[in-house]
Amino acid sequence: MPHGLTNTPPEPQEAEGTGARGGARGGLGGVDGATVGCHRLVSLFLRGALRLRPPRTLRAPAWDLPLVLEAMSLPPFEPLTQVGLKWLSMKVAFLLAITSAKRVGELQALSVAETCLRWNPDGSRVVLWPNVAFLPKVLSRTHLNQPIRLARFDSPSEEGRSKLLCPVRALRAYIAATAGIRQSEQLFMCHGGPNRGCALSKQRLSHWVVDAITHAYGASGRPPPSGVRCHSTRSVATSWAALRGVPLEGYLCCSIMGNAWHFHKVLSCQRRRTTVPMAAVLRPSSADSKE
């Protein structure tokens, strides 16, 4: 055993970590009257390897939400009646991601079927459900068949651009624009290529959201942050909701975290009461300067 540990590199390679070695030791036979996993030298060795190469925590990249929202109210994302389907698709994907704080799998499972899409008679609100075959990451009654509820966002602002960020408005335009080519009841569909009109994959949906963020930075003349992922919209959305004073239960319901205590620990900050979390997240940057 000492000879084997001496010939083992003390630092794990990039492709492996302490978890990989911990799993490997469990599959080996016994030695010196004890299993390899319980051997004192093995435990000391793995503890040292952990200190030399501690686990890395992936942090969400810091990208500027007001900058992206500003770009969403300008060409090529506006006016909706004239934009191409590519830009309209990216805008709807981003707005739904940022206002719902849902995982990409939950967004991809949304459907335009009659049982999964309900509009208010006046068009001011819409409720979207995933298709019945969708299974969320956490299987429980709380997480199954969770809807996304959106209200029309048209509060006044100095620049008159608030309504251009309304996801209800963008969603209605997207459904109308895709009606003629739609080959699936899935909400998001391919807008070009041989699969035009077919259901969109989770990978492509993630690319849409990331591309929207990247384009916003390019349009403003700033280099985009590295490592942007679609999943980062969840942390950005909930953080902005907390900073805007949305009650804990408001964004906890949107993000479907494991429990309220854990979510409160992550977003421990002062909150002021507001009634519409979506309006708080999409508040124009000009409003921030007044506070």
Report on the architecture of this protein.
The protein has 291 residues and is mostly helical. It folds into 2 domains: 2-52, no CATH class; 65-285, Orthogonal Bundle (hpI Integrase, Chain A). 42% of the residues lie in helices and 5% in strands. It has 13 helices and 5 strands. The chain has helices spanning 2-6, 18-26, 40-52, 65-72, 85-100, 104-108, 167-178, 202-219, 232-243, 248-255, 260-266, 277-281, 285-288, and strands spanning 30-31, 34-35, 117-119, 125-128, 148-151. Strands 3-4-5 form a 3-stranded antiparallel β-sheet, with no helix packed on it. Helix 9 runs antiparallel to helix 10 (248-255). The longest helix is centred in the C-terminal third of the chain and has 18 residues, at 202-219. The chain is globular, with a radius of gyration of 24 Å.
Proper CATH architecture of the largest domain: Orthogonal Bundle
**What's the total count of β strands?**
5
Count of helical stretches: 13
Uncertain stretches of 5 or more adjacent residues? 255-276, 285-291
Helix proportion range: 40-55%
* Text of the CATH class of the largest domain: Mainly Alpha
Order of helices and strands: HHEEHHHHEEEHHHHHHH
Task: Please outline the major beta sheet.
Answer: 3 strands, antiparallel
Tell me the β content. Answer: 5-15%
Keywords: DNA recombination
GO molecular function: DNA binding
Organism: Merluccius polli
Region (Disordered): 1-26
